[in-house]
Amino acid sequence: xxxxxxxxxxxxxxxxxxxxxxxxxxxxxxxxxxxxxxxxxxxxxxxxxxxxxxxxxxxxxxxxxxxxxxxxxxxxxxxxxxxxxxxxxxxxxxxxxxxxxxxxxxxxxxxxxxxxxxxxxxxxxxxxxxxxxxxxxxxxxxxxxxxxxxxxxxxxxxxxxxxxxxxxxxxxxxxxxxxxxxxxxxxxxxxxxxxxxxxxxxxxxxxxxxxxxxxxxxxxxxxxxxxxxxxxxxxxxxxxxxxxxxxxxxxxxxxxxxxxxxxxxxxxxxxxxxxxxxxxxxxxxx
Length: 286
Prior knowledge:
By secondary structure, the chain is an alpha/beta fold. The chain has nine helices and nine strands.
């Protein structure tokens, strides 16, 4: 029953406002439905655009471990991609596992006190990364290979993901890779592609779902150490152990540009496939 003490024009205005609220709520619910059904490329575009438009929040110190072996020119580019991060609370530990003096020069050229140098044991990349892990100070750990380039918003995305999901310990982003997809650039033209497999333990038992430069995890995990007996695929083995009893979060954010043309890539080694099969058997039998 209408209250006779309320003037008719006020009742009409209240009714109009109620209808407007219901309409806005309906539109909001529809927007959420659309957002939840977004494809990965659309989610990635939305998240990366949002990161560009907001100032980076204060958050945890993030340590980046970068193992390098006599590739100072590539190393300099990789270091600069970390220096250029929009999120500024980071520490970069460069582990020099080679003998080229250009490595130290690349670090000095960065002229940033957040970049530290560690001497590698020269027993392979797994041992070099373990050396870096012994030097880190951050709450979150990320990685970067010397032939890759970190996206400027990656550490900001990592800080956001771990802040929003206190329950997660492992996350991974999206790589831009030189998969050389044919396009409309002429006979020899090609386009890069982005790569991120959805989280699935079953898939992970057969193949890696990400690259080491897309991986992030909390510091201090018991499994957070590389198997130094592996000559390659040590990052896949690490992720298998880090997620033995927990899921990883697939973050819709660009982490890095993945080079497939650098010299001395371990995945090109003739024994690489045999190592992959060794890892598969190890976890099938676990």
